[in-house]
Specification:
The protein is mostly helical. The protein contains four helices and no strands. Helix 1 crosses helix 2 (40-64), helix 2 (40-64) crosses helix 4 and helix 3 (69-94) packs antiparallel against helix 4. The radius of gyration is 15 Å and the shape is elongated.
Length: 130
């Protein structure tokens, strides 16, 4: 089983829970009129590309260097913060009514979900495949 698929499965599951709860409670009312539909092909492409990049730039180096859980989480969180920040800050700069609160919450979520997905991917590989 590929680390990419493990990472993508973990992140996808966590994101599914997050979006199921936060879309009606947070995103929908703050992004009303900006976006009302989900385009699934770009969303799937994001998960595939992001998972590959996270495994290449975070999971593999953390496993090779045998980083502890905290450092693995920190590197993953920083990677997620940068990736989600690229999206959110670009929206902040180019969409006149993009809410700053969405940018902040989304960047924090990106940091958390990437950090925890990185840690869990390494844990699963060390526990079940090595």
């Amino acid at each position: 089983m590929s680390a990419y698929l493990v990472f993508m499965g973990i992140m996808g599951a966590l994101d599914l829970v997050w979006l199921s709860v936060m879309t009606p409670a947070f995103y929908r009312k703050r992004l009303a009129g900006i976006t009302d539909t989900i385009k699934f092909i770009p969303a799937i492409l994001f998960y595939v590309l992001f998972s590959i990049a996270a495994v290449i730039f975070v999971v593999t180096p953390a496993a090779i260097m045998n980083l502890n859980v905290y450092l693995t989480f920190a590197y993953g969180a920083f990677f997620g913060l940068v990736a989600y920040g690229t999206y959110d800050l670009t929206n902040q700069a180019t969409i006149s009514n993009w809410p700053i609160l969405v940018t902040i919450v989304d960047m924090l979520w990106g940091a958390f979900v990437t950090g925890i997905s990185s840690v869990l991917t390494i844990y699963i590989f060390k526990t079940f495949f090595l």
